[in-house]
Amino acid sequence: MRRLSALALWAVLTAACASPLLPPPAPPPEPAPAETANFALEVHEVVTTREADGLSFTWIYAGGKRLGRTQPQLQSRRQHWQGRLAAGNHPLRFERWIMAGDDTWSPAGEDRQPPERFIRVVEGMQTKVQIKYYDNGRRHEVKINRLPLGKLDDEQTN
Amino acid sequence: MRRFSAAVLFLLAAGCGRTIEQEPNDHFTQATPINGKTRIEGTLRTADDVDMFRLDAAEPERTLSLHLGGIRGVDFVLSVLDADRHEIKRFDETALGGDERAFDIGLAKGVYYLRIANKNPDGGNTEQRYALELEYAGGRDTEREPNDSALQANDIVPGGVLRGHFYPSRNLLAAENDFLEEDWFRINVHKDGTYLLNVDVSEVPGVDSVLELYGPNSYKIKEVDAGGAGEPEVLSGFGIRGPVHYFLRLRSKAKNAANGAIPYQILTELIPYQGEREFESNDHRLEATPLRQDAIAGLISPAGDQDWYKIAIEGDARTLLSAQLSGAAGLDLTLTVTDEIGNPLRVIDDRGKEQPESLTGLGVARGSYYLVVAEKTGRAADARRGYTLKAASIPYPEGLEYEINDSSAAAQSIEMDRSIDGYIAPKGDQDYYTFNVYQTAEIAIDATGVLNVGLLLELYGQEGALIAQSTGGRSGEPVQLIRTLEAGTYTALLRGASPEHNNIRDKYTFRVRAR
To answer: Which value does ipTM take for this structure?
Structure first.
């Protein structure tokens, strides 16, 4: 009985320690094939010094459900994710994760995350969301563009 | 008998103080000695006659003033020469028959020459003697001419009064400087530490004085010219980090203005700096006075003065910065908040002359910010009556507006059935709020009334199109919009119906509810 309790405690502790700070579950979902993607996210940050340019990635949520994430990249580099969403108005949340100095991942503070917002995906169009962080990640701006299908891929390859 | 003895003594004493020139004395080698004399008499027999007098100054730090009484047919030029016969000062203020005066000639131990000449080509007077009167004084509390350049500056020990003259009207030996007469002083601070320097130049009738402050590298740091003719000038609260020396340059604004009858007085004081006052010169971002206490006092002087104060925000938490600027007598003050490189974030100019200004709460985060106090017109100043600036930063409490939310891109998020308190301030303030509706519902958006503000509420859809707008009617009344909205993200704009409407005292409460 005592051995069982110890095992149970160990299992609980390891599970508790492992959950929030580990890198996100790997591997990430494959991006949708270019011909079917109608939604693209591009994220980057304006950093002022090389030292401030750490690794980050962004989870994409729709209605509270994880759709995928960008590849970890230096914050100054443009991170991309694309996928297919049904036409309609979706509550989307973009959750930013930062690698800390001790090589652990954690989400950026709540006041440094863009609030959830609805983004409309239109049939026959591709929706591109661009998020730019600046002022040490304290501020951000969101741009939403819609282009006819196919244009999105052309733009990303340019 | 006793009366007779006194008369003899008086005559003897008078004889000791008086001398008559001994011709020929046209050359320094023939100069008439005048040591200890207070009155010299002589004649200029021909137009080109020159009289030279030799003075052996035995004591250091004395000053000499001269009065040469005018005589018929002669236009005097009075000069003072050093031991090498280098002319150090020349006086020629009057025309034919006029008196000439000289003030505050600084004497060190050594030989000096006085030269009296005539400028009138038809001049000369064989019948009438001239009289030159000499007056000596201790030199520590008076200027010591020549002090017409930084190199010749007189030392000032802060904490005392020094007297001098705006005289002569022109420096006749400074042709390269447009004959400008100026007085230079050097302020030496020998001790380590930070100090505030105050300099007060008294008023002199007929003279509009200008006081300038130069750094050790001869760079002009400050010019004070707030007063007009016959008015004082004050440099107040100038910050100094010792040990160091600075130069003061004092001159008349108008060419040829002078006053030989009434001296100016320069009062200087050096006060250890304790952070309770501005640390001039703080006219630029890089010279900003650190704001380490809750309140600081400052002056707008001279006209066009800007006072920069630096606030450091520590920590990563969201913070609200607020500030109150008192009114200042005769001035219409403005308060500007800038980011760390001086870009304005907020310009507050809600009130008029002699009235306070308030920064009601600006969202800031770790970094440096600046508060800049200025006078609105740039033409008014007051060197004696100043302002008080109070500033505070507090952790951002949920439920308060987080400025800057002046655009849809910077809209503040609000959750359904929550409220946010905010200000319509400063003038022209616009507050954007964004919220999500997750299912079609009747949504009520309202804001409570604010005294002296007529509210205007606008609702925008997800793509930026205006859906509805409402005004609160009269000033002070609440405003409300009720609409059935589909799922989506919406933006509400709340502002004064007129850009002039603002209230720094009373907050509105903004709320979004599903019904």
So the answer is: 0.76
Answer yes or no: do B365 and A118 touch at CB < 8 A.
Answer: no
- Bin A97: left if φ > 0, else alpha if -120 < ψ < 50, else beta: beta
Residue of A nearest to B398 (CA): A111
User: pTM value?
Assistant: 0.73
Of the partner residues A91, A109, A139, the one whose CB lies closest to the CB of residue B316: A109
CA atoms within 13 A on the CB side of B17: 13
Residue A156, SS3?
helix
Query: Phi then psi for A153, rounded to 5 degrees?
Result: -70, -40
- Which candidate in A117, A127, A131 is best for mutational testing of the B interface (most B CBs within 10 A)? A117
- Reference A111, options B315, B461, B7; nearest CA is B315
- Chain B neighbors of A134, CB-CB under 8 A: none
CA-closest candidate to residue B150, choices B117, B127, B177, B126: B177
Residues making up chain A, counted from first to last = 158
pLDDT per residue as tens digits for the range B48-89: 999 999 999 988 889 999 999 989 999 999 999 999 999 999
Alpha-carbon distance of B353 to B333, in angstroms, equals 7
What 8-state DSSP symbol labels residue B409?
A: G
Q: Strand pairing of B466-471 and B455-460? A: antiparallel
Query: What is the Rg, in whole angstroms, of the alpha carbon atoms belonging to chain B?
Result: 35
